[in-house]
Structures are given as C-alpha cells and as structure tokens.
Amino acid sequence: MKENKKVRNVLQKYMQWPVVLSVLVLCANGAVGLVSGKAGMVMAVFTVLYAFCAGVLFWYGKKRILTGLVGFAADFDQSQKNLMASMELPYGIADEAGRLLWTNRAFSAVIKDEKSARRSLTALFPEITEEGLEKMDHALEVQCAYGGAIYRASIKRVTIQSDSGLLSAAPGQKTEQQVLAVYLYDETEIHEYMQAITDQKMVAGLIYLDNYDEALESVEEVRRSLLVALIDRKVSKYISGVNGIVKKMEKDKYFFAIEQKYMPSLEAERFSLLEDVKTVNIGNEMAVTLSIGIGINGDTYIRNYEYARTAIDMALGRGGDQAVVKNGEKIQYYGGKSQQLEKTTRVKARVKAHALRELLETKDRLLIMGHKIGDIDSFGSAIGVYRIAAALGKKAHIVINEVTSSVRPMMDRFINNSDYPQDLFLMGDDAAELADPSTALVVVDVNRPSYTEEPQLLNLVKTIVVIDHHRQSSEIISNATLSYVEPYASSACELVAEILQYVTDSIRIKSLEADAMYAGIVIDTNNFTNQAGVRTFEAAAFLRRNGADVTRVRKLFRDKMEDYKARAEAVRQAEVFEGAFAISVCPAENVESPTVVGAQAANELLDIIGIKASVVLTPYNGKIYVSARSIDEINVQVMMEKLGGGGHRTIAGAQLPGATVEEAKEKIKDVILAMKQKGEF
C-alpha cells in the first residue's frame, strides 16, 4: 500500500512540471521586458504559445498517460496471473477454514480435479487438521501423502486486497482479508532415496539358546552332535532366507547381520524361528528354545551391536523364548510363550551372595524397600535382607509408606519387639534424610523404578542392589550396582532365602523372620500350586528348619469377613470373554486392601474349568488396579505390558489412572482381541 501511494505521488509531481515551467518562463519574460520593451513583446508571444502548449499537455496528455499506465498495470497484473497459473510449483489460495479459493494448473494436476465439495485442504490431506490451521501463527509445514506421492505442504498466512482480482467486493469498495497461501513441494523421490538408505543399514543381532545344556542332557550322547547340527541348520537357513550372514560365536551363541529392509517381514511373522527351532526332535525330552536380540537405527554399527546386547539381556531377563528388538529407546517384544526352565544349579545364587556381602561390608547403613502397596512377598524378602545386614553388623531400615491388610498382621509382630530396633520401619521421607555415600539401597520384589516404594531413593543412593523374580520390562533400574533378577523363581523370598545360605557361614534366622519369608513364598505360589519348582521347596525346607511354622502362618493370613465377601462378589460377577478369559470387578467398599482381595479373586477364577486367564479390576484411590493371572497357556505379562504394567508370565498387573471401570474393561478386551489376532496365544 505504501509503495503504491509513493508511485502515485511521483507521477502527479511529474505531470505538474509543465505548469511550474510556465510560471518560470513568465517570470523570465517580465525580466526581459524591463531590459527592453521590444524584446519583451517578442518574448511574450513565445511565452503565450508555451503556456498554451503546456496547458494542452497537462490537461489532455495527463488523461492519455494515466490511461496508458492503467493499461500497463492491467497487462502486468494479467501477466502475473498467467505466470502464477503456469508456475510448475503447485500453488493455491485457501480461506482460513482451509477451503480452496484458487489453484494454479500444477496444483489442480496434483488433486486431479477433485469435486468442489471436497476441495478443502483438510479433506484432501488428512494430515492437515482444522485445529492445526487455527493454531498456526504465520506459517505451518506438514508432511502429506496424496495420490501415491509425498508432499511437504508449506502454508503461510497472508493479507490480500479485493482489487487483486482474487476476491470480489462491492463496486468502489476496497477490503482486506486473511487467506492461506499453500505451496506443495514434491519430496517423493527424496523419501525414496532416504528409505533406500535406511533399508541398506546393517542390523546387528544375537541368538542365544536358552536351554542348550539341559536339552543335550535329555538326548543320547551319540546323537548330541546331530541335535546341534540340526539347530545350526535351522538358524543358518532362517538368516540366509533374508540374505543375512550368521556366525557361531560359542556353542550356544550366534551373531548375525541383515539389512534393515527385512525387519518388517520378520516382525510380521513374529520371528518364526522361535517356534521352528522347537520342532527339532531326535529323541530329546526337552524342546530347544532360543532368544533373539536385535539392535537397529543406531548411530554406528557399534551402537547397533550394543543395542543387540541390551536386547538379548532383556530377552533372557524376561524368561527367554522370545525376540526383543531395540530401536533406539523403543523396545518391542515378540514371543515369550514358554515357561522359563528352572535352573538346577545354585552357582549363580552363591556368586550373587558373595558379591552382596562385599558390597555391604563397605557401607555403614542399609535401606531396604519393596514396591508400592507392598504384599507379603515384598515384606518377607525385605525382612530376609535385614537379617543379612544384621549378620554383617550393619544398621538397616525397611522403607514402607503404606501398610496393607495382608502385611499388617506380620508387621505387628516386629513392632515393639525387643529383638528389633524401634526404627526398623521408616517412612520414605525419613529414609531419604539418611541417604549418604555410606548408605546402600536394596530393592526387593520389583525392578521398575516407578513402582518402588520411594523412587527418589534411587537417585539419592549410589550403591543399589536389585533382587526380584518379575520379568524385566523396558523400564528398569538402570543404575543398579548388583542385579539378581530371576524370572524362574517363585518369589523374591525364595531368592533371598538362597542368598541367606551363602552370604555368611552358619547364619541363623529367627522364627519370626522365617515365618515372614515362608509366608511370602506361600502367597506368591498360591500354596505351592503356581510357579513352584524344586528350588522353591528347598527354600521352604530351609525356612522350616529355621523355625517357620505352617499353622502359625496360616492363622496370620485368614481372611476378614468383608474381604471374603468382596472376593466372592468378584467371582460371582465374572464375565467370560472369548470363552477363555474371566473378567470381573472387585468391590472396594468396606475393604481395607482391595487390591490384595482383587488379586486373590483373580487366583480363584483360575479354578474354573475352561478359564485360561483371569483379569480382575479394582477401583482404588482414583485408579483402576488390574490383577491378571494365568496357569500356563497365556502370558499375562505381555498382556499387562500393553496397558503400561508388567509382572510375571503367570502373575502380572497394571494401573490405569483416570479411567472408569467400563473404559478399563474395554481396553482389556481390545488387548485380548489384538493379541489373539496376532497369534500371541
């Protein structure tokens, strides 16, 4: 606007020059007349003629010049429109709602003359939303896919006048309006090249046989080499099928490398090698299982290998028989249908016990904590670790914020007991004040930072020990100095009971402590019917020898009438979904620890014929607590991980904040249907 006014003023001044010169000539004529009258008369004739010509030029030439200028402007505007219309870059103008007002020929060719009813940016390109257009300030760039091509849509907000020809207005009236200028940049070829580069990236992978030694022992010695050869052939054939290379590093470990373009097909078939290797049978009583760890999209090949190492550790930590893909910070799990084989040797327990003793000998104080809303397994294992600290002469405290009804009867036996210090149990805030460089932290029965009783302690204490029996997820305590996570174990109390036998010579535990640990094993195994192995009974026998009393434990954990009624109501209201999944809701009214009752109800639902897995929802403290249980066919840990939880293969749980019971039910049903469709059970 300012430039147009400036040009208009210059033209007006230029047209006034003949009038100004006429005044100047008139003044010169007067000066000449003063010098000579005759000369002044002669010059006056020429002055009149000049003034006449100047007037004619000013009054009549002005109109012709302006007409010419207007014609030039019109021709220029039309040329500009033709240039915009014929511009090869797709360009269009839309109103603020995204409706297209005008497009050039290149833009029309892109949208292929869509019907006027759909000539809207939001209809043509779903990636462009009305909310995005409303929130944009001056510019917006969106990646769009249309007609098999990929475009970068650059949208800019501009002001346009009605006299530009693109907007109409009333005669003699000028208006201004905000519109959107839209540019489409075809980046299909760039993305094809980028995808080609990505497809050619190397993917590093590791394959570990989970039960190599056990499988070999189950077959005749003369046929063991044949079993190994068949396994090697299965692995080599699988990797060769995707044009990869595989190298056997040890008797039960392989390294392989493939191009990244084959990853989608491997993930789509959910790594069929996991099931294929189980078909190898030459008389071996035990099926061979393996774990796969893959690292992709690292900055370097070394980083991909590091990702693969982390992934294989995750696979083994979750029980094996599964594939784990680590893509940067993102981790995907596949498989995990088999029950992990219990280790028959205690060598690892002895090594961990000696390492724990060496760590604690360098510290003055020990803090012990379990998970939020602790159960008796968490409490019992914490008591066991306290006994280890006491045997080494170290001061120890158990961190517990909320005491549940399942823990209270056992905890009351330690409070005001002269055999134990008054500050044995501490709140989380009090424990945080004690944290210093001479303090060690032992986390029991949990390996997820957000689920611990007091997460801030993980940042305050440098020396951290983790003892747990739950399968690891993508969220782990990464700064642990010593980690003993064994998914095959029935409970954390079982692991602590084994460590107790090796941490120091001739250790003796009190009957109260033995009761607490024995109760943890009984509760987590549902009276030795779930996840109980040979070492479970050996740990229970060790505790019985140290004074654990079965009758006393049973009396401590008898139910209150309100709890029993709530559990019975949850069983009564159970809904059978897809013929094999029992889904119910546990009432929380008049129940001191509804989450514990919900878990008990989930256990009881498994006793119904045809039920493969049970899921009980418990509304408590503004959240929906989910308890999932199974016997053998369903991996409920994978199910709960899809809801943000985790746990064990047959015992798992999750928390759903901000959801109603009905919404939580629908989420669980959607997860079951999705897993069933993918063949995960």
Automatic annotation (TrEMBL):
Species this chain originates from: Alitiscatomonas aceti
Keyword annotations of the record: Cell membrane, Hydrolase, Membrane, Transmembrane, Transmembrane helix
Catalytic activity: 3',3'-c-di-AMP + H2O = 5'-O-phosphonoadenylyl-(3'->5')-adenosine + H(+)
UniProt-listed InterPro entries: DDH_dom (IPR001667), DHH_sf (IPR038763), DHHA1_dom (IPR003156), GdpP/PdeA (IPR014528), Oligoribo/pAp-PDE_c-di-AMP_PDE (IPR051319)
Keyword Heme recorded: no
Domain DHHA1: 599-672
Residue ranges of every copy of the DDH domain listed in the record: 366-521
UniProt record similarity statement: Belongs to the GdpP/PdeA phosphodiesterase family.
Top EC category: hydrolase
Name this protein carries in UniProt: Cyclic-di-AMP phosphodiesterase
Localization (cell): Cell membrane
